[in-house]
């Protein structure tokens, strides 16, 4: 559609004893009004998700005009909180290999009143406790307003929103019993117990833990976590042959542990960089003159 604007000025002036009325016109100003030929419908299967969950995006591009729309280019601006799953792009149920929505790709032509549906997947990755995932779909196409001139390149876009939370954690208790091996020495009191956690490695497995009844429904994977706890125990002790002479003793030992953490199956698309460990509490008791019982409350999180 075109809007043509032309200015008209009527004026009056004296020429001799008579008034003269005259009219002048300006040049024409033409503005081309571009009407949208395409419409975008966009949806995501989860409005609230956890980290390492897979989000499925569906974008339908509809030609709402009576014209053939050519040279269509699609691009998705993905948020920093997601990672594209390669080879997950389908156009009208046909898998498109080696294309990345974040880089963009050509779609081609859409006939009048027809549509094309694009489907792809991303996995959410940890970037904080709570994230707002906003993705922006951009479609660029040729708009021909004059057959004798080059077409306009017109963009249209559509956003979607998902809130992602990071609540993958596990609390566990690790027990250790320290025993004094020397028969002549007895422990009088515990002065302090220091602990240090070291995560040795992780492994992702698809085999469910049998006690997890809802594994099939939630489609979860297991992260096996291997680690160790270093105990530094400071105590007072005495020789049974000289009970009045109290000495300070120190013992350092390391004990291993293993645990698992359930995570959404999207974890298989992500390489775990770090498992966070935090010692929430350490309690200890003198069982007898030869043994100290230590209980460590440990919080593991991704």
From TrEMBL:
- InterPro entries registered for this protein in UniProt: Chlamydia_OmcB, DUF11_rpt
Domain of life assignment: Bacteria
PANTHER family per record: CELL SURFACE PROTEIN, LARGE CYSTEINE-RICH PERIPLASMIC PROTEIN OMCB
Identification of the protein by name? Uncharacterized protein
Q: Which organism is it from?
A: Clostridium tarantellae
């Amino acid at each position: 559609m075109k809007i043509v604007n032309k200015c008209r000025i009527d004026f009056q002036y004296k020429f001799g004893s008579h008034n003269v009325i005259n009219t002048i016109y300006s040049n024409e100003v033409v503005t081309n009004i571009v009407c949208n030929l395409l419409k975008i419908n966009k949806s995501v299967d989860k409005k609230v998700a956890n980290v390492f969950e897979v989000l499925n995006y569906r974008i339908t591009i509809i030609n709402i005009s009576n014209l053939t729309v050519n040279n269509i280019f699609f691009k998705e601006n993905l948020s920093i909180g997601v990672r594209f799953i390669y080879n997950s792009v389908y156009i009208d149920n046909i898998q498109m290999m080696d294309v990345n929505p974040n880089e963009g790709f050509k779609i081609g032509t859409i006939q009048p009143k027809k549509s094309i549906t694009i489907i792809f997947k991303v996995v959410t990755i940890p970037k904080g406790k709570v994230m707002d995932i906003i993705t922006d779909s951009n479609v660029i196409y040729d708009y021909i307003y004059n057959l004798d001139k080059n077409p306009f390149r017109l963009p249209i876009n559509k956003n979607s929103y998902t809130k992602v939370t990071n609540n993958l954690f596990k609390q566990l208790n690790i027990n250790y019993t320290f025993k004094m091996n020397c028969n002549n020495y007895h422990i009088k009191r515990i002065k302090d117990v220091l602990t240090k956690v070291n995560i040795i490695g992780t492994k992702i497995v698809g085999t469910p833990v049998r006690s997890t009844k809802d594994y099939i429904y939630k489609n979860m994977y297991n992260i096996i976590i291997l680690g160790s706890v270093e105990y530094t125990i400071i105590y007072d002790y005495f020789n049974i042959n000289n009970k009045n002479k109290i000495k300070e003793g120190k013992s350092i030992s390391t004990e291993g542990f293993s645990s698992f953490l359930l995570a959404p199956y999207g974890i298989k698309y992500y390489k775990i960089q770090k498992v966070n460990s935090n010692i929430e509490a350490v309690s200890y008791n003198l069982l007898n003159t030869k043994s100290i019982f230590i209980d460590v409350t440990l919080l593991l999180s991704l």
